[in-house]
């Protein structure tokens, strides 16, 4: 052999070995968690995912048979990078009643992998693709009937990071909106089956974040600290409705609309996310408190479940946000103005009629969204105030409005398990609103004074 040819062959072999992509198994995380940013070059990535059919909670007292990726709804967050060569292994649990597959919108190829991944119960299918285009993409099951598989919970997000990565932030979270079509109405207890006729009419009983009512509330709320930058990866599994995504009390500093990797808008209040689409939003939190995530098609938030929480801790900045500094009786016809939060000097000036009228104002601005204008509440979510046996205990009522309430509570024989945040009301405001509530709807009718509230503060 020519010595030069031998040297060239050896050099080419060394280069091939040096350029070979390492093989790694992808880290998968379930909502709201996101895998860590990828500090690496292109790799041969193995993704293992199982489909299964699981009965889980859809709302308090309501169960549903979900069809899942990984036993959760939504399925896991998949994080890969541009130019990765992906080996996808989809297994269908032997107990499944249906075949399943996966259509990843990040795949360039027929069906997004759906045809190649069609998997019968008890089998595993493998296919490969290269992640050519960076962005944030939906994946979902595409086995016929496609709409039914998606409606039962089979969707998730896959992030293909650009080769240089995304800008660094302090917190990243995974939020996915979707809707459910049940035989009976919102909050009806018991096991609820899927209703195909409602799905075809696009008449959803539930519109939720991360697969269930309350999945982002109470101890499951997202968390951050004042001064931190938060990035939300937000998807919409559909199968039908467009999301009007909004965070109450925040403005999106940067918006990556349609799941692209370049921010194309700044200072955005609400963004549209189509069914089968995604977006990324970034914002810095500047004031402590609880920020509410909603679909701003607003009845979905307060009546169908599309509501979550971001709880921010840290020092207050009264310049950025002062909170309420006063609350006064407004008399447009003229007359003296009476300050309601001047609890020490003027409680004796408030007649019962004045206290009830002031309480009505507090109720309409702070309570009616959850408990409704007529006090009937929302079944399965917010307890009724009309004819409420809970209100018979005056001291418990004061403590609830003063300090908030978490965990299970029974009202009129029905259990509710949500959160009522402390609203930061003054002693007079609490006294007034409870006096108003108790003057209405066949309630006990007692009057509460600011002094009684102050004694429990």
Using the CA coordinates, give the radius of gyration: 27 Å
Low-confidence spans: 11-18, 336-349
Share in helix:
10-25%
At the fourth CATH level, what is the homologous superfamily of the largest domain? Cupredoxins -  blue copper proteins
Number of helices: 9
What is the CATH topology assignment of the largest domain? Answer: Immunoglobulin-like
Distance between the termini: 93 Å
Task: Tell me which CATH architecture of the largest domain applies here.
Answer: Sandwich
Largest sheet: 6 strands, mixed
Dominant shape: globular
CATH class of the largest domain: Mainly Beta
Topology:
Blueprint: H1 3-19, E1 23-25, E2 28-29, E3 44-59, E4 62-69, E5 77-81, E6 85-92, E7 103-104, E8 124-130, E9 135-140, H2 146-151, E10 155-161, E11 171-180, E12 190-191, H3 196-201, E13 206-209, E14 222-225, E15 229-238, E16 243-248, E17 252-256, E18 265-268, E19 270-273, E20 277-284, E21 289-295, H4 299-304, E22 307-313, H5 352-366, H6 368-371, H7 394-403, E23 405-411, E24 414-420, H8 427-438, H9 450-454
Helix pairs in contact: 5-8, 7-8
């Amino acid at each position: 052999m020519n010595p030069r040819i031998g040297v060239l062959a050896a050099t080419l072999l060394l280069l091939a070995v040096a350029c070979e992509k390492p093989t790694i198994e992808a880290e998968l995380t379930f909502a709201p968690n996101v895998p860590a940013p990828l500090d690496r070059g292109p790799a041969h990535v193995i993704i293992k995912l199982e489909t299964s059919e699981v009965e889980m909670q859809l709302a308090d007292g309501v169960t549903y048979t979900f069809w899942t990726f990984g036993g959760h709804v939504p399925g896991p967050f998949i994080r890969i990078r541009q130019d990765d060569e992906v080996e996808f292994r989809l297994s269908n649990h032997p107990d499944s009643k249906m075949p399943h597959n996966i259509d990843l919108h990040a795949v360039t190829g027929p069906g997004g992998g759906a045809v190649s991944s069609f998997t019968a119960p008890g089998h595993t299918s493998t296919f490969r693709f290269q992640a050519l285009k960076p962005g944030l993409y939906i994946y979902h099951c595409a086995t016929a009937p496609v709409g039914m598989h998606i409606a039962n919970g089979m969707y998730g997000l896959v992030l293909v990071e650009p080769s240089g990565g995304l800008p660094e932030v302090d917190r990243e979270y995974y939020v996915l909106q979707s809707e459910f079509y049940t035989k009976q109405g919102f909050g009806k207890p018991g096991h609820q089956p899927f209703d195909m006729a409602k799905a075809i009419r696009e008449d959803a009983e539930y519109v939720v974040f991360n697969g269930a009512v309350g999945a982002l509330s109470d101890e499951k709320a997202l968390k951050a600290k004042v001064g931190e930058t938060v990035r939300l990866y937000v998807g919409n599994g559909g199968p039908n409705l467009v999301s009007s995504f909004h965070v109450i009390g925040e403005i999106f500093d940067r918006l990556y609309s349609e799941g692209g990797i370049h921010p194309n808008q700044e200072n955005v209040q609400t963004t549209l996310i189509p069914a089968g689409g995604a977006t990324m939003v970034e914002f810095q939190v500047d004031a402590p408190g609880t920020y509410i995530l909603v679909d701003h098609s607003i009845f979905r938030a307060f009546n169908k479940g599309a509501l979550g929480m971001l709880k921010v801790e840290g020092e207050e900045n009264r310049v950025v946000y002062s909170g309420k500094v006063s609350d006064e009786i407004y008399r447009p016809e003229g007359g003296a103005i009476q300050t309601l939060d001047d609890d020490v000097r003027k409680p004796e000036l408030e007649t019962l009629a004045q206290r009830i009228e002031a309480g009505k104002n507090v109720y309409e601005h702070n309570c009616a969204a959850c408990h409704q204008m007529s006090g009937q509440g929302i079944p399965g979510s917010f307890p009724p105030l009309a004819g409420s046996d809970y209100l018979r205990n005056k001291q418990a009522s004061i403590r609830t409005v003063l300090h908030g309430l978490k965990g299970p509570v029974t009202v009129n024989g029905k259990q509710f398990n949500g959160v009522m945040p402390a609203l930061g009301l003054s002693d007079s405001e609490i006294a007034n609103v409870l006096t108003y509530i108790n003057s209405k709807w066949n309630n006990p009718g007692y009057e509460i004074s600011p002094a009684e509230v102050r004694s429990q503060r």
